[in-house]
Structures are given as structure tokens and as C-alpha cells.
Amino acid sequence: MEVVILPDAATIGGTAADAVAALLDRKPDAVLGLATGSSPLAIYDELAARCAAGRISFRQARAFTLDEYVGLPADHPERYRNVIDTVFVSRVDFGPDTVLGPDGLATDIPAACAAYEDAIRAAGGVDLQIVGIGTDGHIAFNEPGSSLASRTRIKTLTRQTRLDNARFFGDDLDAVPTHCLTQGLATIMAARHVILVALGRSKAEAVHHLVEGAVSAMWPATILQHHPHVTVLLDDAAAQRLQLIDYYRETYRSKPDWQGF
Ligand code: F6R
Known about the structure:
α7 (204-212) links the parallel β9 (193-198) and β10. This protein has helices at 9-26, 41-52, 80-87, 109-122, 159-165, 185-189, 204-212, 236-239, 245-253; strands at 2-5, 31-34, 62-65, 67-69, 99-100, 128-131, 153-156, 179-182, 193-198, 230-234. It has a single domain, classed as Rossmann fold (3-Layer(aba) Sandwich), CATH 3.40.50.1360. The strands form two sheets. A seven-stranded parallel β-sheet has the order 1-10-9-6-2-3-5, sandwiched between helices. Strands 4-8-7 form a three-stranded antiparallel β-sheet. By secondary structure, it is of the alpha/beta class.
């Protein structure tokens, strides 16, 4: 796990965008994994700016989103499929039908989840997965207690996650869906490179567990300690509970120029 502490969201966005650009340079038809939520927004802004400037293209790429609320109407602005279209996909040059998400309106949910796993596999797996982290340590919507071997499935959202996300629903907790479809922890672990972004003080405890805690279903993100290629991009506030913060800073400072992510 490489821990990189950067001054602000914009710098984190640029650093993650560099990793996406390097991947697309060497593999233009790469498969990206996209997270919604606020953490990756600066990455998407930076990628959209580079695409508008003709510096990067997603024309041959494909992408899969991590999760989706169950039951939100197709045109609901907070449906993750619509959110990712607004904040990223519609701003770059993906081809038609190349970005997929779990179907939160499926009538046969187990079949829809299995079909989603099949689609990721058929695409050759995810090359670079962008993830955020919940204050309770979830990645995608793998809430505490999730099986470390889980695959795409329906999950009940914790009250904490619904409270955290109420800001997207006019601060109305009752408007936040109770269930979601989410890639499992094993699905995420199959990605070849995972970039996790955490911003702000509210993420500091989860980040401490992620990087320095024991691997446990109670802090689902800790499974990433078993992944061979994870980059954790943090602002100072999200890094403040790390015991080895000085070591991570020094490691990044002394990183040779030739060594990317
Ligand atoms: C979103 C997702 C969630 C978020 C997490 C952090 O697709 O999978 O795990 O990444 O809840 O959300 P933000 O970034 O809004 O703090």
C-alpha cells in the first residue's frame, strides 16, 4: 500500500489523473472502475479538463461503477448512474454504452448482480479502480460486517452511511434509500490497481484502520492490505490519525522520479 499525503483535493485530482493518463497511454482500451460520491470529483474535473484540451481520450476505454441505490427512479438525480454521467462520463468522450453500473431497478436482483460480475469479467477485469472510503470504513457499499470474499450483491445501508449521504438528498434522511447493489470486496480486490481517495477529518479514523489496523470485516476497506497494488491518496486532515505519518511523507518525498504509481 503506497500512502501519499498531498495538500489538497486539486493536487490529489491531478495525481490520480496522471495515473489514469499513464494507463490509457499504454492501454487505450483500459477498463476503469469509477466511484461516485464527493471524494473523486477533483479527479473527474481534471480528467474532463485534459479531455477537453485533447490531452487524454476515453474513446476506446470502458468503465464500471461500484454501486447503485436500489429503487431510485431512472431519472432521479442522485441515482449513481445519473451522478456519474453528470460529474464525469458526459464530460469526456466515452463511446456509447461503454460505461455500466449495477441495475438498481432490476426485478431479479440476484440475476442482475451475477450479470454485472459477468460483464466485468467479460471486459477483462478492471485495470484501475477509483474508490472512496466511508466514515465507517466501507468501500463501495460494503458496510461493516461484509464478507471479505463478497461479490456484487444487495446490501442494507447502515444508518451512518445514510446520515452521511443525506446531504445529497436535501438533508432528508428518509429520502436516502435503505438498500443498494454493490460490487463486493472480492470484486474490488480483482482490480489490477486500486486508487483510494480520502479527504477531510471525518475520514481520519477509517483511514487509520485502512492503513494501520488489523484486517477485519468490521473495517471492510482493510481487505486492501492484501492487495498488491493500492495507492492511498490523502489530504492532511484525512491523514492526521496515521501513526507512521512522517514515514509516509518521507517515503513519498524520496520516491525516485522514474517510479510512477
Ligand atoms: C460511492 C461509494 C462510496 C463512497 C464513500 C465515500 O460510489 O462507493 O463508498 O466512495 O461513501 O463517499 P464520499 O466520497 O462522498 O465521502
